[in-house]
Amino acid sequence: MARLKFTKMTGAGNDFIVFDNRDGKIPEDRSEFIRHICQRKFSVGADGVLMLENSDRAHFRMRYYNADGGEAEMCGNGGRCISRYAYIKKIAPEKMSFETLSGIHYAEVRGEDVKLRMQDPRGLSLHIPIELNGQEISVNFVNTGVPHVVLFVDNVAAIDVKKLGEEIRYHKRFAPEGTNANFVQVINPDHIKIRTYERGVETETFACGTGTVAAAVVGTALGRVKSPVKATTKGGAVLRVYFEVSDKKIKNVFLEGDAKVVFEGTLCD
After folding, report:
1. Is 38 an active-site residue?
2. Which candidate in 38, 81, 208, 268 is catalytic?
3. What is this structure's pTM?
4. Each residue of 164-175: b (16+ CB within 10 Å) or e?
5. pLDDT, tens digit, for every residue of 65-76?
């Protein structure tokens, strides 16, 4: 593959390698390439890859790939990063739209922050009994662009996210696609702490945008939080979730937080 320019970005500690692929230099058969460049210590290293491509429905198309090379429907923090990238590179204006596998999204760049319109949540299911290690626990599920399980805990710092997250991610109840797993501590009705095991990255990440939205949505459905919700992530960054509740349905959901350029470079091989 030819030498490729890239931009390394981070959104609340969720880090991405961003490519402008409007010229189609990176072929569709890209899973092995993505797995390689996402390896920390061996290549650039990242939680995932963002490809900016042409769209006839919006300012651009976002393709998101997890570190395992698999393509996902949506990534909240990735959506915020690629929006700021498109603005910086003069590909899109401050207020823009972009296409994803989950539909059209709208974003507004506000300095280093980006406010992103998410899809309305679907498939909300509360108090799902599942068995883990011989014990039955109750979890909650919602799709905020990708599937998420949300489990509320008393002390999120005490949770073994890698172990429990992996067990939930591969639980037969959520097969065959699997799910992300979020562990959430409510500080007060407008503030939560959250840790997430991400499907596709297959470990805990410093932040997850769609997971943060899922936590806010489920918390609202359970009467534990209300909009706007401030979420403190594993990396210490703060994400904000805004939404409306009408006829017991949650809609007009927005995710806001930082989207920073870390460095730019060129892949040599």
Report:
1. no
2. 208
3. 0.94
4. bbbbbbebeebe
5. 999 999 999 999
